[in-house]
Amino acid sequence: MKTIEKKEDGILETVKTVFWALIIAGIFRTLFFQPFWIPSGSMKDTLLIGDFLFVNKMAYGYSRYSCPFSACPITGRILGSEPDRGDVIVFRHPTSGVDYIKRLIGLPGDKVQVIDSVVFINDEEAVQVPDGLFVENYAPQGSAGNLPACITRPGPDGECVKDKFLETLPGGVTHSILNFTDQQLDNTQASIVPEGHYFFMGDNRDNSSDSRVPQNAGGVGMVPFENLVGRADRIVFSSAGKSLFAFWTWRGDRFFKAVE
Known about the structure:
By secondary structure, the protein is mainly beta. It has one domain (32-254): Umud Fragment, subunit A. The chain has one helix at residues 2-31; strands at residues 33-37, 51-56, 88-92, 99-106, 111-115, 118-121, 124-125, 127-137, 159-168, 174-179, 191-192, 197-201, 223-224, 228-238. A hairpin with a 5-residue loop joins strand 9 (159-168) and strand 10. The radius of gyration is 21 Å and the shape is globular. The active site is at residues 42, 102.
């Protein structure tokens, strides 16, 4: 009988331990940091497919999207803090409910327009300076196995090349962007960002679904403040393969790399 009681006590203690571990993990994820894998190439070369990071949820306060499954009983935003132009932010798509990660370009009230691939904010040019080339292997990337887009068809060496620029936004934030083709979104109509909303773009400008296309046309459109989940501050881990367990594909130079 004592043996049975000990087994039952052991099982009960295990259940209690797992229960409290899940509660603590849920609180940590809700209030502080949310893990996020980079699934696409829309933010190259700032973020690569397979980068793993923790999103800082304390940066902008909390909304219902701060909880898993949008379960927080919050209306609007509490402890809110305004984001800065140039922040790299995870947000909930206003219509699809999918989490996206992009760079904040336009603040409430801003006039944003793209002319010949150059961003203008309130008629001020975000100056681009050539910064060489971004070169990567022309090979399937991530769990989806998608091939990267390149300026020209890769040669025998299998290198995929894009033009790289350093862009400086009004306010002084400088970051890397890529360009590999001429496309329709290189020229847009001027848009005024509504109050309480934000305008986002991917750093890989020719391979990003973002605020340049309105929601009713299949894009991201303007993103409400409530939909911001948190700020990406630092890459924790990075793997170029389909699985994080494929250690031979780890990118050691990206571990604990700051997101700029």
